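Checklist before submission:
- one chain only
- standard amino acids only
- sequence pasted in full

Submission:
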Amino acid sequence: MPMKTETKNKKTLNKTFTTEREGQLHFFKNFGINIDENDILIANTDGVNKGNIFEFKLNINNTQQVLFQAIKYLSRLRITGNPVPKNILLISLNQSKANIFDSGDYFEEIHQIYYGGASKNNDGFVIKKQPIEIDYSTGMGADKILKILKENNFTKIKIDEDCIVGWAEKFYRENPTAKKSDYLDDKDGGEIRKPIKFKDYILPFKEKTNIKFKYLMDKLNDNLIKKELGAFFTPPAYAKKSVELVREAIKLVPKGNDYIILDRCAGTGNLEAELSSEELEHTIVSTYEYYEYKVLLERFNGRVRHIIPPTDDNVEFSAGFVVNADALSEDFVNNEIIKQYTDNSKCTVILFENPPYSDASGDTMETGVSRNVGKNSFISTEFKKNFKSKMKGNVPSKELANLFIWSGFHYYLRQPTDSYILFSPVKYFKNIGLVNKTFKLGFAFNRKFFHASPSTISCILWQNFDKNQENFTLNAFDINTKNTADVSDDTIFQIQDIIIRKCYKSPNEVYFDRRVLKDDITNGVWCGADGYEAPKQKSTATENIYNKNIIAYLHLVGLMFNGQAKNLTRTTINLRKNGFYLRDDNYFEKLPLFSAKLYPQEKWYEKDVYFTTGDGGDKYTKDKDFLKSCFIFACLSRYNKCISFTGSDKRFYKNELCFDNDTLASKQLEKFKLNGDEKELVKIWEAVLVEAKKTENYSKKLAYGPYQIEMELNTSEKDENNKIVYHYSTLNGELENLKKKLKNYYARYITPKLFKYELLK
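Returned file contents:
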């Protein structure tokens, strides 16, 4: 009888699966693991539940390969700050068999870094200890699996450079009020040295100092410090290149003069690490964040001329900061150590800095200690008094980079042979006008490697000699990481030269149509950034004007590009100011402004380099072909979020900026002689409309543009593998074709003229 029962059970449970996903879901359901309630599909694994990690295969033919794949996943869990499960379960689905390994046996392998797909290059792996084998098609085997699945044990990992950031993010995420000292303190312990929250997951970090993490200290800050300080990590490869500018500045030092190299925001000293011993003997460094100061002290004490403050005993400490190293305070400006050099005419001053670039809008920290970058701080007050009051437009006086740059020239550089080697986005020159000195030499670096997103950060040698210039050229350099985690072996390579041009007027100043007509009525409806009607926001400063001649609302923000810098909607957008109405008598000449804001910036060395401007005046309006190109582009762009709808005010708002259903744009298009590329675009659009009319949700009453078709008609769902499946594949294909052709059209017919007419600069 027992044999018959066991045989019957085996026959029932031993299913055959056609996909791993099908088998995986069946396994979880069969053993009571609810994937909807438990977030088990993490880090691209097949599943992590309690102290278990799963790797599913239809049939496991090479246990060594599958085990290595699972170990790679455990390595990723460690790096991303996720506990490493004790049990590794390799499941052969169609054999109903599980091999269970102990991850602790592979401690060293889990502490390696693996590149590429986890399922690739797994040949030759050696099993260290034979697994427990379980046939879970039997009742006894299934019971053993259930017992294992209840286990909640983990292999404790060691903290190193690869995982310190991931575990820091987990620590601050789970402890929102925690400070950096709670995680990293090297006196009383901190979480990494005396684990409490993570006692089941990590081994105590044994090293006495944090110098091992010198390249990562900015990423280890708690949320408050990140807000206060911004980011100013400098990758070693770029730091090394920037030293070339320091040596050019040293050449300007008059014969017989002493000189100092001053860095008020040195962090852990990545810039200074590339200086020679002789250059370090002329260097003064300081940093505001306490744990970075301690690393700086350990790296450079006795090697540089001065560290401010000189020793740990001299530190005025509060809430993670070195109060007497606040470079934006009046006390720091009057620091006697520095003033002995700035007051000496026989000493040349070279500033060498990568200032933090963040808008520190908070005046007071949680403890009540002022960061002195708010509206009442010394440097901010002096900046507004001496510089901002003389400038036209909005010059952020709380943006840390602006305060460092202005104060650097204002308080420290006094003679024509003084210099500033400055890392910063170029807006301080392009449109703010903070620096009108002599450009000597400069580079463009990829901000991606500064623990930020890909964009351009300049590194420029400014000689302290007054000079107004309209532009300069930077050599752009990228980094070859050699696919290793060690930043010390990175190398740089030159890409091309880029020209930085000064900007004067934003499109808002020059092109906005601010007319108020007699028949304008303030009882229209608002819409959100998605183009659909939305309730009024209390903070909005935009009146909801209605007029029969209004066909859209164009929302543009200043000179720079960002996610909220451009919106084209059918009615008044629910955002503050920075927009105007497109009417039936002005839309044709205003759509190039929308086109300019959609410049793709596909390469990092285009981001934070090109701005939209009004410097070219109305020159572009004389080019009828250009106006036509921008008109066609705008009407076919999915970023045009004008839609047709009936509002809560019972009015019908027809999308007039699309080529459908006898719209204003359709009538305008008929007046043009189209070139070959334009005829092709129109033909593709007509194919889109043909397919759109076949969809279930199509309405004859509406005029559709690409955006509304994508949102309402091009419907889809996700399959069992979490992949998107479109209900109307031909429609989706035509829309994708339109996007590609429109992108090429923009590059050929619009981009060159945007620069020609200084709509882009």
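Reviewer check: The longest helix spans residues 729-756.
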